[in-house]
Design goal:
It is a single chain. By secondary structure, the protein is an alpha/beta fold. It is built from 18 helices and 14 strands. The protein has three domains: 212 residues, Rossmann fold (3-Layer(aba) Sandwich), CATH 3.40.50.620; 77 residues, Tyrosyl-Transfer RNA Synthetase; 86 residues, RNA-binding S4 domain (Structural Genomics Hypothetical 15.5 Kd Protein In mrcA-pckA Intergenic Region, Chain A). Helix content is 43%, strand content 15%. A six-stranded mixed beta sheet has the order 1-6-5-2-3-4, with helices on both faces. Helix 10 crosses helix 11, helix 13 packs antiparallel against helix 14 and helix 13 runs parallel beside helix 15. The protein is globular.
Length: 413
Amino acid sequence: MADDALARLQSGAAEIAPEGGLAEKLALGRPLRVKLGLDPTAPTVTLGWAVVLRKLRQFQDAGHQAVLIVGDFTARVGDPSGRSSTRPTLSKEEVDAFAEHVLSQFWKVIDRDRVELRRNSEWLEGLGVEDVLRLTASTTVARMLERDDFANRYAAGKPISLMEFLYPLLQGADSVAVEADVELGGTDQLFNLLVGRELQRDAGKDPQIALTMPLLEGLDGVQKMSQSLGNYVGVDEPPEDMFGKLMSIPDQLIAKYELLCTDLGPDDNARVSAGLAEGSLHPNEEKRRMARTIVDLYHGPGEGEAAERRFDLIHKEHGIPEDPPDVRVPMSVFRKEQDGMWSVHVPALLEAMGLVSSRSEARRLQAQGGVRMDGQSQPSEDLRIDGEPPGAISGSVWQVGRRRFARLAGMTD
């Protein structure tokens, strides 16, 4: 039984340090304090971000104590992990806004009722100069330059701020403060996790186990999933958007996405990997199963099949969904011409309908032929209409790109 529990917790892990350490911790026979620190520096929790959150949920389900640390202080310093340049610092207000937004998304993955939620400003904000100097005395510049990202930047003559050197020490101080038995992170976090072990040892505490999870490649199949690169899937995206994005991943990532983003399990994953390699499984069909499973996981049973039907309607049959969302727009998007006729400024209309983030995006998509009304391309920025606004276009269905649809239901008061 203990071996089964260990196997489940180790499943999918990239590295566990020290080797055999997790088994020793589990042998203590008590709930372990499992730490995960997440810096709120972006508004969306991606499937890549959720990989390590899902591992934390596994520890929760095994009866251990999840300790989720919102890095509201360290986010202001800036994590240098995996970066080739210094990251711009964020203000306290920016970090707090991100934190408030992403916490609701965390609960899609981990059990809110079984988590100890902390903010590391609790113990870091009050540090004095003496405390910081004591932290810096625990390591050396040579030790910091063992990190690949620091070493590469130093060799290339790119700047490394002293504040960035402090980041691993502050993250390690988190482990001391919450008395972590295990700390989770991506493979790019291993150095920081090991620094936490050193600081705990210096503080006379049992050092934590470092468990890292693989980084998930984004939709481009090359670079790490990242909001800044736009190659991501968010856990709170609409089902049809999530399904459509997942259908675009390269075939070679199907098995990895199933292993890290679903509950299908390692045995099923081994079967799929073998089937795809030998040709007994068709990549498109398996990709569909993967996409349905992930959509169901975040939106509920049956949502994956519904999203698949809408996907096929749009991409196979080139049709319009039966139930696009109804939206109302302000009168300001319409204007009366000198001849008494009315017109609508299409970029303003699309922005008001929530189909684009800006009018410049709308103009760019129009130039590319990516804007349609009732299935017909709309390349002009201004569209004349019959009757009082919204006139003849009331009830029209607008499409932007492949997956964004909305029906013009009228005007707001």
